[in-house]
Amino acid sequence: MPKFLRIGIHQSNVSGYTSKAWCVRRVGTAILLKWGAVEVHGAGDGRKVYWTRLPQQKTIRCGSAQRAQDYAKAAIARRRNHRYEPLTGAIVLRRRPAAGNTELKRALATILIVDIVGSTAKAAKLGDVRWTKIMGHYYAAVRKELKSSRGKEVTTTGDGVLATFKTPAAGINCATAIQKAVRTLGLEIRVGLHAGEYTVSGTEAVGLAFHIGTRVAAKASAGEVLVSSAVKELMASQSAINLKDHGIHRLKGVPEKWRLYRVEG
């Protein structure tokens, strides 16, 4: 079964990030597809890939072996044209601790989402070698600012970063610092911040607050830092940071409408 892993920061030999994988298999006149989020550990020959949860599966009936073969070829070509690399070796489902042995903890934090604008077009223009080098510098710059601001990296998503902060001011200051740092690499980013609770289970952090932060970031344009109303309310006493009303927005998949604010200056 041919397998494909989304090309991401693994080219920089960074371990412990999330990506997406596809599996394509032809069985007679049918095509079996399997896809989902994966967690990657290690690099090179020692790299291991795990499904983060049960992958989605779909069977496509093609009616004839020739049609199935043509479908499989086209599916494989599409993966290779959409920044996926052929993946050798198995993708296994990581065994989670039994529910009785998993301690759930609730945490409150300011959540920061950073995403590169136009990364696919820029990667295609620069080529794999130059883009890989730039991405290495990009993640180094982001992590340097996170450390300076006492932010905690939660995960990476392709060319994005998700981190948490104890205070909104620290998250906003870190966001503007990251903007300045990555512009020297010729990159523009969009940033979203939200404040809310999430659940920590073992080494995993999950919760609606992360999804809201991601949707806030999606509303930002290149060079913008947007924050949710939850962040604004916590910033009432922070006169040094100027927030401008950015209107009311509906966030995809999130209940109700949200008022967002743009960081000025």
UniProtKB/TrEMBL annotation:
It comes from the Bacteria. SUPFAM superfamilies: Nucleotide cyclase. One of its GO terms (molecular function) is adenylate cyclase activity. GO terms for biological process: cyclic nucleotide biosynthetic process; intracellular signal transduction. Residues 110-217 form the Guanylate cyclase domain. CDD domains: CHD. It holds the Pfam family Guanylate_cyc. This is Adenylate cyclase.
